[in-house]
Amino acid sequence: MQAFTTGWALHELPRRHVPRTDTETLQTAADLAGRLLERGAVATCERDPGGPRLDAGDIAIGVAHRDQADLVRAALGRTGSPGARGVAVDTANRLQGREFEVVIVVHPLSGRPDATAFHLEAGRLCVLASRHRQACIVVAREGIAHLLDSHPLTDPVHLSVRAKFPDGWEANQIMLDKLSQHRVAA
After folding, report:
1. 173 class by beta-carbon count within 10 Å (0-12 exposed, 13-18 middle, 19+ buried)
2. Is residue 38 part of a domain?
3. Which pTM value belongs to this model?
4. Per-10-residue mean pLDDT for the chain, 186 residues long?
5. Could you tell me the CA-to-CA distances from 48 to 51, 59, 94, 132 in Å, in that order?
6. Does residue 22 fall inside a structural domain?
7. Is 159 part of any domain?
């Protein structure tokens, strides 16, 4: 698996505009967690070089919205993996400060026809992409790069004024560039 070789994977689903409660994307995230448990994935690190088998408590699925989290929790029950219901599922805000061996992220811009300030927020993306110790698997629909390229900047631009916070558009571009090296087509 790409994520366990490099620590990163972008699991891309076919491009489509979908509601944020896209059942295919959310079920894919749940299925990936179930597969990790069923295959007996092992986490080796400085804490345990022998590598214990991952259990549900070692895995989290991060999303942008609470309704997505509810749907992922339901989807975990359909994976066929008995331990899958124990996987932590929550929003970026609620995962902040926590750490897991593997984190599966449903990209906030996946399948969206627009890039809102909420979905572009750099802090949200940073939290989702930094909760893992071993591997981060991002589940997304193709087309995010196109969305970012066509997203018009509506915020006023002030010349010679330093930005007070990271730019979400730029953070998403950098993240996608990194993930493009670790793409796995569904």
Report:
1. middle
2. yes
3. 0.86
4. 74 94 97 93 75 90 97 96 95 94 95 88 88 92 88 68 70 81 74
5. 5, 17, 27, 16
6. yes
7. no
Residue 136: what pLDDT? 93
Helix crossing, 66-76 with 23-38: angle to 10°? 50
Which residue segment(s) compose the domain that 172 sits in? 2-153+168-185
Q: Which of 108, 146, 140, 141 is nearest to 127 (CA)?
A: 108
Q: Which two tokens stand for residue 120?
A: 């572009």
Q: Give the CATH number of the domain where residue 113 resides.
A: 3.40.50.300
Instruction: Measure the CA–CA gap between 15 and 140, rounded to whole angstroms.
Output: 9
The beta strands (E) that lie in 79-123 are given as 88-91, 100-106
pLDDT of amino acid 22:
96
Task: Name the domain count of the chain.
Answer: 1
Distances (CA, A) of 22 to 47, 51, 75, 94, 175: 37, 35, 12, 21, 22
Q: Is 158 part of a structural domain of the chain?
A: no
Provide the residue type at 77 as one letter: G
